[in-house]
Amino acid sequence: MQTRTLSLAEIEDISLRALTAAGTTKANAQALAVATAATEADGIASHGLAYIPIYCSHVTCGKVDGQATPVLAQPSPGVLTVDAATGFAHPAIDIGFDQLEPLARSQGVAALSIKNSYNCGVLGYHTNRLARSGLLAIGFTNAPASIAPSGGAKPVVGTNPISIAVPNQDGEPAILIDQSASTIAKSEVMKHAREGKPIPVGWALDSDGNPTTDADVGLAGSMAPSGGYKGVGISLLVEIMAAAMSGATLGRDAAPFSGTAGGPPRTGQFFLAIDPAATAGDGFASTVARLVDGIHSQEGARLPGDGRKSHRLRAQSEGVAVNVATLDKIEAIIG
Fold it and tell me: Which CATH number fits domain 72-182+225-304: 3.40.190.290, 3.40.50.300, 2.40.50.100, 3.30.1370.60?
């Protein structure tokens, strides 16, 4: 694969220019561009620049409204809601977070629900932001159905990630859990399909519920849930929080994030922000430090999120190697 090294600023700039060229407002595009650069910095290329051409095509076909203005409301003292108005999730989350952080400080705990939304990219990117401000953050986002229930073969729930970001005294999260309900993110199967590569056994199932190594067959079938019943259980939890609790569309009724057919998916997100000082006083930081030490003190052991930190440090100083084929697609959109 031929690559070209870009700085994080260059990644943000090329993302912004492509999105605005496709018909996205500068404010909406800026939120996605910043997230794209951060995602590339964390080493998650499958959700970084590779998604920009997809975002642009979805603006063009109407699957997402690049001109949408999200609407914020506060129906009760500790709850915020945002109607994304079939626009991008990122600007909807941004306006919600602007109020969620101070609300969590004053209330001790606060919730933010988002409906009529779109793919929010890497969920941990969002919870990470709250943890950097000293809040413990829990995030949920549902997706178009791609996981069949245990014993079934027809997808009912999505890969539905859940993320927990634990604050640390140095500003970087002490722990960042960001996991899908499936064995592997669907974007990885899509990447293998685009490149014509087989997938490992255990990633996806065919339409009869049998394991397959054919990425295209897996995409037409269903994703394999992580840990069987446990994966389905996590996906159901996320579906309840991100769809039922927000008033968003269930994954089984949502248009796919991939392709241009089906219209807006209207999925949802849900975030809980908790001020540790309100529940644990001064004891939170020392307790988390002991927990982290119990893992880091073991040779070769690492915590969820450790890899992202080390990759980010390299990306900030050395830039990111980006697939030239992806850059060609983006530059063609910019014109």
Answer: 3.30.1370.60
